[in-house]
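Students often ask why we bother encoding 3D structure as a string. The short answer is that it lets us treat folding as translation between two languages. Here is a chain of 488 residues written in the first language.
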Amino acid sequence: MLQCRPAQEFSFGPRALKDALLSTDPALRQLYTSAFSPAERLFLAEAYNPRRTFFCTLLIRTAFDWLLSRPEVPEDFEAFHAALAPRKQSPARKHIYLQPIDLSEGPAGGALLDQLRSCTEAFFLGLQVRCLPSVAAASIHCSSRPSRDSDRLQLHTDGILSFLKSSKPGDALCVLGLTLSDLYPREAWTFTFGTFLPGHEVGVCSFARFSGESLQWGPSTPDPAPEAPLEDRGRTVCFSALGMVQCCKVTCHELCHLLGLGNCRWLRCLMQGALSLDEALRRPPDLCPICLRKLQHVLGFKLVDRYKRLYTWTLAAAGTRPAPAAGEPSGSEDTLPCSADSGLCGESDSEPGSGLSEPLSPDAWSHALPAGPELEPEDGLGSLAAAESPGEALAEHGRWLAACIQALERDVTEEELARVDGAVDALARWDLFTGRLPAPRQDPPCGRDGAGLRRVLGDKFSSLRRKLSARKPSRAEASPRRRKAEDD
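And here it is in the second language, the structure alphabet:
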């Protein structure tokens, strides 16, 4: 595989990132101002702040990365808002349904589903997540084929999506199928991690490539601490701590698609596409500021409440704190969260609660991260695959979440925001989207008279080229075929 050594950054300019977050539409800019507090706006300004510390630019590692292989126009907030389908404004339609397919409901399968449910309730704060009874793939009547790169049996996604569409509960905001079997959407594709049916809020994702037999932590070291085995069509599948986190990541990625978010090309983000297992592992576990604004527009949560809930889940996943009870609601059961910037509103105007299973005081949060220097740019939101072990990766992500909480609980003035915006607005506009790595040609160094010499040589060669093009070859110089054509 052709690799970029070292990895190349793919970055938009600060002003392009600011327009992607705030929009150029005055109405959407006003919506942004009314939806977020000054502290939230300063935190989201990390999207376009050249001195950002919480988020990172995209990296291209190989010539076959998703970013280069699937060139498309990036989706900013204005495009997302214009394409957002109108949703039924009712408190009843606030449930995410998870539909297991060929997933055993024993202790091992229940543990996986409990982890997925607690993670998605934290990620999509304000929505309740329910698990439907597992169904057999044979009862769905979907096509299948042998896998091209293993001995797995792959399921075609069309039959699964049709089944989910026809059996979707009436109070479902969206339904996501979960399977341990490998998936393929078209014959030409080797596999897919997940896909969805646009306009119908149903999708399906596969955990087949996150099992212990496929997943490794590092070049040759397998991920330790496998969980209890699961049965998949007669095969035993084990998930480690790393595999469990990857299952949560792909689940949240597909659910974001079902809520209207497109793929992200702005910053390092969970909504990046992935064409290989390596890309999926390197995908960060949370959203960039631009996609975070999109999700907040749909659900209406407070940013700090969501990060606190994710911090609680991360500690539980790392084994340092008990997990919330399975099925525990992340918000009020009777009131759908709403805000001035929400595309999914309820009938009540009350503010949503934090939804924390274990509420912590501001003092506790202020001590969650030891006092010290701010995060370095390279320590921002990154993948969990860069740490030495799954436990260290989760602990590192927990520290990142704690730093985000500290930033959101600061007292921020409008003057601080104005300084950041003024510094960015003073920069020259730099919009970059080429779909490929930029390769500027560097001119060789030359002396003081280099420019004049190049001009003289250029004029000389241009004169010679004009003379040669105007010169008519003699009959003796012409080729035999041309002389025959002239004679005819």
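Translate back mentally: The chain is about 40% helix and 10% strand. Keep this in mind for the problem set.
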